[in-house]
Structure formats: C-alpha cells, structure tokens
Amino acid sequence: MFRMRIGGIAALAVGFVALVSAQQPPAPVPVDDGALVGADSRRGDWLSYGRTYYEQRFSPLDQISDANAAKLGLAWSFETATDRGLEATPLVIDGVMYTTGSWSVVYAIDARTGKELWKFDPEVHRKYDALACCDVVNRGAAFYKGRVYLGALDGRLIAIDAKTGKSAWQTTTVDQTQAYTITGAPRIAKGKVIIGNGGAEYGVRGYVSAYDAETGKLAWRFYTVPGDPSKPQESQALEAALPTWKGNDWWKYGGGGTVWDSIVYDPEINLLYVGTGNGSVWSRQVRSPGGGDNLYLASILAINPDNGELKWHYQTTPGDTWDYTAVQPMMLADLAIGGRMRKVIMQAPKNGFFYVLDRATGELISADPYVTVTWASHVDMKTGRPVEIPGSDFLTKGAYIRPGPLGGHNWQAMSFSPRTGLVYLPAQDNGRYFEQPTNFQMKPLEWNLGIAPIGRNSEQYDVPYKGRLIAWDPIARKPRWTVEYGGYWNGGTLATAGNLVFQGTAAGDFFAYRASDGQKLWSAWVGTGIMAPPITYEIAGKQYVSVMAGWGGAFARKTRTFGRLMTFALGGTTALPTKPRPRRVTAIASSARPEEIAAGAKLYATYCVRCHGSNTILPDLRTSTAGVYANLEKILLDGVLVERGMPRFDVAENFDKQAVAALRAYLLDERRKLAQGQ
Ligand code: CA
Questions:
Q1: pLDDT tens digit string along 624-648?
Q2: Which of 4, 188, 378, 380 gives the lowest tally of CB atoms within 10 Å of its CB?
Q3: Which residues contact 97 (CB under 8 A, 6 or more apart)?
Q4: How far apart are CA 398 and CA 169, in angstroms?
Q5: What separation in Å is there between the alpha carbon of 201 and the centre of ligand 1?
Q6: Which CATH architecture has domain 594-677?
Q7: Which residue has the higher pLDDT, 612 or 548?
Q8: Residue 415 is inside which H or E element, if any?
Q9: What is the 3-state secondary structure (H, E, C) of 161-228?
Q10: In angstroms, what CA-CA distances link 345 with 10, 185, 198, 313, 496?
Q11: Residues 337-347: tens digit of each pLDDT
C-alpha cells in the first residue's frame, strides 16, 4: 500500500513537469499486445526479435541512406568481456538496448551512449558447455509489459524486470537430466511466452512450449515427434504422425525435431509458425529402418497459439537423413504472385531450397535452390515433395552431399525490403560425406549421429567453404545480385528504407550495400568476427546501427575470440581497431610429393577449414612460425595447445602421423603460393 502511494505521488509529479515543460519527452508507451502488433509504427524502436511480427528485419528509418553511408563512423562500443560466440539480435525500447551474450547473460545498455545500466547473469552451470552442440550462444531476449524474457542455456525461462534487472519469475522448461539446451530467443504471442529448445545431436525429443507471461505457468506444449508408441500420444497430430515412423527404437533415440530457432506469430491469421529440426539420430536408416517421412521432422508447423493445436504442416525434407533442419529464420510478407496478393511465409532452410508458402493453408507456392543442391533434383509442385537424387540417401554406399549439415543457410537471420522486394539471404557453400555406421550404440549425453565418422579415404572434400550474400527475388524465384565472400559463416542481415543492407563477416568486416543493386558503399573492421544480425534504431532524431561481434557457434565453437557490441552513426568519431597488415612470408623448403599435398588438402577441408577458414580472423596457417610446422604432431595428436583453444585430432578416425605429414605438406605448399604471390 505504502509503495503504491509513493508511485501515485511520483506520477502526479511527472504530470506536473510535463505541464510546465514542453521539452519533456512523452511517457513511454508500454509494450503490450497492441504495441507488438503495431511495432512498425514505432519507427525508432526494435521491439522484438525480427523487429515486428512479420520478422522482416526491415526498418523504415532512412536518415542513414545510400547517399551518405560513407560517412558512417563508430558512435560507441561496448565490451562484453566474453570469449565465445555472440549471436543475439538486440532489442531497443525507449532508449534502452537489451541484448544477450555468451552463457545467456543479459545486458541493459543506454542505447545512446553504450553505458551499461544492468547485467543479469543466470549463472548457467559450466557443464552445459559439453551439452550445447553449437557453442554457449544466445540469440536474444523478448520484451513485454516491462519485462525482459530470457531462455537460458540450461533450459530455464526467466522473466526479468526491465527497470531493475532482477528476476521476476523463472521456470525450468526441460528435463535437465537430458541434453536439452536453449539458445533461441523467446517470442511473445497474446500474453504467452513461446520457447523451444535444442539437443537433437545428443538424442532428445523436440517440443515447443507456451508459458503465461505474467505468472510463468505452462499454458500448452506441442511435441514435434511421437513418443513411446506403446502409450497414448499427447495430441491427435502425433497419432497421425506415428505411422510415418518405422522400427522399434526411434523414440529411444529421442526422435529429434527440436525447435531451436524460428518461431513467428501472425496476429492476422492467429497462427504460430514453428520450424522443426533434424532427426535424432541423423541417419534415417538407423533411426527408422524401412523409411517413412518421420513427421514432423524438418517441417514448418502452423500452431494455434491459444491451445497448441496443429493447424497445418509442411515438411521440407521428408525422412531427413542429412541434418536438414527447417528451424531457419522465417518471415511473413504479402506478395503479389500470379496476379493476386498472397499472404506468404518464406524460409531458406538448411536443405538448399528457398520456400514460399501460403501461410494460411501451408500450400506450396514455390521452392527453388539458392545454393548448389545435390540431394534432390527439384521440388515437385504437384506433390510438394522434393525429388531425391538416387544414392543420396547413402543406403548402400557413402555419398558426398551438398549442402552439408551446416546448411546452405543457418540461423543467421535474413531480411526483406518491401521497397526492393528482395530477401537478403546470408548463404554458404559446403558439403559432407555421409556413410551408414558399421554399428551404432546410443551413448547418453554425447553426440549420437548414427553415421560413420568422416574417414581419410572419404571422397571429394574439395567443395570450397565460401559465404555469399544473395539478394533473392521471391517472386521471380532467382537472385538479383550476389556478393561473394572469401570466408564462411558470416552474419545475418538488416534492410532499411535508406536503400541499405548491412551485414558483418567472419573476417570482422561490417558492410553497407546499396539494397537495390549490391554496390558496396561502406565498411568498418571491428576486430573480431561477426555472426549476429545488425539492427537499427533512432534516439532524439539520430539513427544508429548496432551489431554484436564475436565469432563461434556451430562452425567454430570454442574458438576463443572476444566479443563486443559496435554501434555506428553518421559522423561517429570513436576510434575503430586497426586492421593488421597481412604478414609477409618466405617459402619453407618441402620435398612433399603432389599426392601427399592433395591428401593434405582433403584433410584441411575436412578438419581445419571450419576454424582456420579462408579469410577468417583466426590464425592463417600459411603465415605460422616455422615452429608450428615442426611441432604439428604435438599440436594435433598430443593436444599441447588445447588450453589455448586448439583441439586435438587423434580421436578422429585415421588421423595419424601420416595424416599430419600430409597436412604439413599442404600447408607448406599453400605458404609457398602465398610467398610467390606477394
Ligand atoms: Ca542439427
């Protein structure tokens, strides 16, 4: 009661000040359901993960434009004091930025100055490092009615008071004896907090849950794959899915289908779209011998947000056997296709096809390859199913498949500009050799993929690991322009009304392109690799662009880079880090035979390219000191640099002294080429 009265007096006082001073900014409008539906009209804010419920990551701000982007400079930077990957989309509400970092830490920051207001550390137990497939990352928070909502790595959902940074409630959303983790951002739909989880590489059963935002009470849960077939299933949708699974053991492997990233709410149609992940285990032959579509793996699900009932589903990869998750970011748009307006949902899942679906019904409108795809020739428009290329299921013989498990596109968010009609898609080329295992035994709390480990004799490791920004026209179903990168595993994108697209790269460059034609207009080097998608916002008439920088994730977990949040504005004058000049090298004599160099190239593509890349900020192995080449056996087989983040490889199949010699031969040959090119 006493507190209430104080609050009342304070409110009266604020009212009085407002009367006497026209300069006073208006009181903040609360972020409630109406505000979230009308998020686009709050031009200066970034209210939710994809900015609005459409998740287009398009901002109407145009102070920074293709006419003046060259004048961008650093306004402020914030050091996160982390050494693991940063993947978050910051939110900006009434001048305060809320973002998340490694180990699910939440930061509230003055978005004009970069000053920390509070920090919330959920103190996730460090054992979760071993249970997170893809680094101890977090992709962001949700904001609703004065609270910040966090999905913590250990499976907790936490409501935090946005003013004080103190926990209002928390609840555990997973069975913590299993290898569940949360890295995705929660979403808000009609007073509920929607949250999924990950863990399919270890062997879990996927689901998505809705909690009451006010109290933290579970409202509903939808399992994406059936459970123990001897018991009743939790929903009619799962009873329908049951016959699409074969054999006796799939449910003991968890089944998979985890909802670890994309969740999108459509307030017009009142549907919640959820992307589901790969099968657990990966190999369908092990998981579901005899085949079957294995519903609802690798699917887009449309769920009633009021009760958790499935309305429609579209399976992008029936019977997934390649880790082809369909959890990749989805966005809603209204597009004129074939002479009529269609309400669509768009997704570029790992499997390499760009999908446009009618979001009211799930009807397939188009599906086209956006990278090189070798597992399917096309998607049949009559059946809506991919047409698999014979042998790509590696049933009788190993097969090299593109895209590989890292996907033609992963969690790095794409953006869409209604002005240009283009989707700005962070894509990538990669592949992997798949082979059935000779025997398979499930191990608790470990990776259980159900495929043979990559051997030195596996074929064709020569696919270049390269990233690419594609401006995809979803109506014409083709790229309008592309930007090729030397490196891989680059950042998500942001589109603005200033005819700009922003994207950071693994090499630590932050770029602005003209949205209409891809012309590079500006770049800044931020000193550490970028994976996260940028955002933009406005305070007191000034537009800012922010991005979290800090490499890692599935591609390069435990790389031990450092993290920072960089914010740019026109005329920003804060000093940027200086890009080091490439080191000059001289060739080191080697008597290796060409076959040995070629074998080393395959090994490099299999084991090393993930972290050492081409063009990443991690050590360039062509410019190492002579001691590194001399001690390669100690580094790779004995693990003498493990403490510094360099893993040992003696655990890999056929990774022996001969393999080390081949790698050395390849690296010295690459060094010779570099020395000659200088
Ligand atoms: Ca996976």
A1: 889 999 999 999 999 898 777 777 8
A2: 4
A3: 90, 91, 107, 108, 109, 110, 111, 537, 546
A4: 50
A5: 6
A6: Orthogonal Bundle (1.10)
A7: 548
A8: strand 415-417
A9: ECCCCCEEEEEECCCCCCCCECCCCCEEECCEEEECCECCCCCCECEEEEEECCCCCEEEEEECCCCC
A10: 46, 19, 23, 12, 20
A11: 999 999 999 99
Ramachandran category for residue 261: left, alpha or beta (phi over 0 → left; psi -120 to 50 → alpha): alpha
- On the question of pLDDT at 273 being above 90, the answer is yes
Q: What is the 3-state secondary structure (H, E, C) of 595-635?
A: HHHHHHHHHHHHHHHHHHCCCCCCCCCCCCCHHHHHCHHHH
Active site residue 323: yes
Tens-place pLDDT, residues 199-225:
999 999 999 999 999 999 999 999 999
Q: What is the pLDDT of residue 26?
A: 65
Q: Global pTM?
A: 0.90
User: How far apart are the CA of 277 and the centre of ligand 1, in A?
Assistant: 6
Mean pLDDT (the chain) is: 91
First to last CA, the chain: 76
Question: 406 C-alpha vs ligand 1 centroid, how far in Å?
Answer: 8
Contact criterion met (CB below 8 Å) for 463 and 431: yes
Tell which residue, 222, 212, 193, has the closest CA to residue 310: 222
Please list all protein residues whose beta carbon sits less than 5 angstroms from ligand 1, which is an ion: 278, 323
- Given the residues 323, 368, 429, 669, the one annotated as active site: 323
Rounded Cα distance between 125 and 123, Å, is 6
Residues 6+ positions from 461 with CB-CB distance below 8 Å? 433, 601, 602, 603, 605, 606
Query: Does this chain's domain 51-87+489-577 share its CATH topology with 594-677?
Result: no
Largest CA-CA distance found in the chain, in angstroms, rounded: 85
* 83 pLDDT more than 80: yes
528 within 8 A of 564, measured Cβ to Cβ: yes
Closest alpha carbon to 477 in 573, 357, 366: 366
CA of 200 to the centre of ligand 1 (A): 6
Minimum mean pLDDT range among 109-118, 178-187, 348-357, 571-580: 571-580
CATH of 51-87+489-577, one of 2.40.10.480, 3.40.50.2000, 3.40.630.30, 2.40.128.20: 2.40.10.480
- Summarised one tens digit per residue, pLDDT across range 192-202 is 999 999 999 99
- Do you know the residue count of the chain? 678
Q: What is the pLDDT of residue 562?
A: 85
Within 384-513, residue ranges assigned H as helices are none
Kindly tell me the burial class for residue 502, based on how many C-beta atoms sit within 10 Å of its own C-beta (0-12, 13-18, 19 or more): buried
pLDDT tens digits for range 130-141: 899 899 999 999
- List, as one string, the DSSP characters of 499-538: TEEEEE-TTSEEEEEETTT--EEEEEE-SS---SPPEEEE
Whether the Cβ atoms of residue 160 and residue 167 lie closer than 8 Å to each other: yes
Cα of 258 from ligand 1 centre, angstroms: 9
How many Å lie between the centroid of ligand 1 and the Cα of residue 325?
Answer: 6
The span from the CA of 578 to the CA of 195, in Å, is 40
Distance between CA 580 and CA 589 in Å, rounded? 27
Distance 623 CA to ligand 1 centre (A): 34
Name the phi and psi angles at 224, rounded to 5.
-90, -15
Interhelix angle 657-677/594-603, rounded to 10 degrees, is: 100
Mention every residue, 6+ apart, whose C-beta is less than 8 A from residue 506: 467, 485, 487, 488, 489, 490, 529, 530, 531, 551, 613, 615, 616, 617
In angstroms, the CA 176 to CA 645 distance is 27
d(CA 630, CA 640): 13
Enter the tokens of residue 678: 């200088």
For the chain, the structural domain boundaries read 51-87+489-577, 594-677
